[in-house]
Amino acid sequence: MRKSVFTLCLLLVWSMAVLADDPVESTSSATITFFRTPSSLLPGKFAVAAGDTVQFARGNLQYLASRNIWRFAEHQYDMIGNAAGNTTRALDRPTQGYWIDLFGWGTSGWNSGAAAYQPWAVSTTNTDYCPSMSPGTNWSQSDATQNCDWGVYIFSSGLDAGYCVLTANEWEYILSGRTNHANLMGMGTLYGVHGFYLLPDGWDWSKVNAEKTAASFTWTSSSNAYSNNVIRNNTEGRALWDAMEAKGAVFLPAAGYRNGTEVTLETLYYATSTMGSSSDYCASFEVTKNGGLIRMCYECRRLIGRSVRLTRHL
Question: Among candidates 114, 122, 157, which has minimal Cα distance to 139?
Fold first, then answer.
C-alpha cells in the first residue's frame, strides 16, 4: 500500500510538471513548438508612429536547438549571458541541449537562401546573413522575406499572428518621438541585473507611489548609468517592480552581444528588421556601458548575435 501511494504521488508530481511547462504548437508552417507563458504581452502601450502602438513581449526570445523549441524568458530580466548555449562551439550548436538568446540577423530558421539562417548560426561573415532573394534590402513586409523576422515566422497565422521585431524607425520613435519620451526611459539595475527601462505612454508614477516610497526608489529620467534607477531584490523592491510591470513597464537586460561563440556582457544590442548603411550591416538598438551611449546603430554587423524582444501591433 505504501509503495502504491508513493507511486501515485510521483505520477501526480510528474503530471503537474508537464502541465506547468506544456508546449503549445504555434501555427507556423514550420510546425515550430513554442512555450507560451500566461499573458505573454505586457499591458503597456508604446507609440511607434502616429496612430500606431505596440505592446512588448514579457521576456526576451530563447531557442532550444535539440527540440526546435522557442519560448519567452520567464522574467524580463532573464538572460543566458556568457554561458553554454550562447558560447557552445559551432559543431555542437545544431543539436545542443542548452537555450540560446543571442541571434544573428534574420536567423528565424526560415530558409531565406542565406548561408546562415538557422537560429544557432555563428558564422563570422556578414554576407552569410543576406537573404539570397533580396540582397541589400530590408526584410519585405509584402513577400516571403518577412519570415526572416522571428515573430512573423514563429507566429505565422491564427490568434498568435502579429508578433514582430521593431523597425529602426519604430525604435527611434519610442526613444525620441513619443510625448514626454525623455522621462520614459533610462538605464538602471533590476535585481542586480543591468539594463534599460522603458515606461509606456502616459506613465503615471503616482499609481505606484506607495511601492516607490517603500522601496526608497528615485527615478532618474534618461539615465545613462546602471548605478541609477536601482530596484533591489528585497521585499520592497519586488513589490515595486511587480506594481510597475503590472502597469506595463519594460526592462531590457544588458544581455551583451555574441561574436562567433564569444560573448561580451554589460551592453544591450536589440534586433530590428532594418538593413544598415550597406547590405553587410543591420540596424540595432544599442546601449553601451562606457559613457552610457543610448542610440540606434546603423552600422552593426549582421554576424553579431543580439537579443530579440518581440512586440505586437495593436
Answer: 114
Q: What local confidence, expressed as pLDDT, does residue 127 receive?
A: 86
Sign, CA dihedral 81-83-85-89, equals: positive
For residues 271 and 206, give the distance between their C-alpha atoms in angstroms, rounded to a whole number.
33
Burial class (CB in 10 A: 0-12, 13-18, 19+), 21: exposed
Q: What is the mean pLDDT of each run of 10 residues along the chain (314 residues)?
A: 39 30 40 53 96 96 93 94 95 95 94 92 90 62 84 77 91 96 97 97 98 98 95 98 98 96 92 81 86 84 95 94
Amino acid at 193: V
Cα(178)–Cα(275) distance, rounded to whole angstroms? 23
pLDDT of 250 = 98
Beta-carbon count within 10 A of 157 CB: 11
CB burial of residue 206 (10 Å; 0-12, 13-18, 19+) = exposed
With CA atoms as reference, report the closest residue to 203 among 171, 168, 270, 250: 250
Is 211 within 8 Å of 243 (Cβ atoms)? yes
pTM, two decimal places: 0.88
Question: Which residues sit opposite 272 in a β-bridge?
Answer: none
pLDDT for residue 113: 86
* pLDDT at 141 (0 to 100): 67
C-alpha cell at 293: 551611449
SS3 content of the chain, % helix, strand, coil (to 5): 25, 25, 50
Closest CA to 271 of 300, 242, 239, 235: 300
CB atoms within 10 A of CB 20: 7
Give pairs for 167-172: CB < 8 Å, separation 24+: 167/138, 167/272, 167/273, 167/274, 168/272, 168/274, 168/283, 168/296, 168/298, 169/48, 169/49, 169/274, 170/48, 170/49, 170/54, 170/272, 171/270, 171/272, 171/283, 171/285, 171/296, 172/296
What one-letter code names the amino acid at 109? G
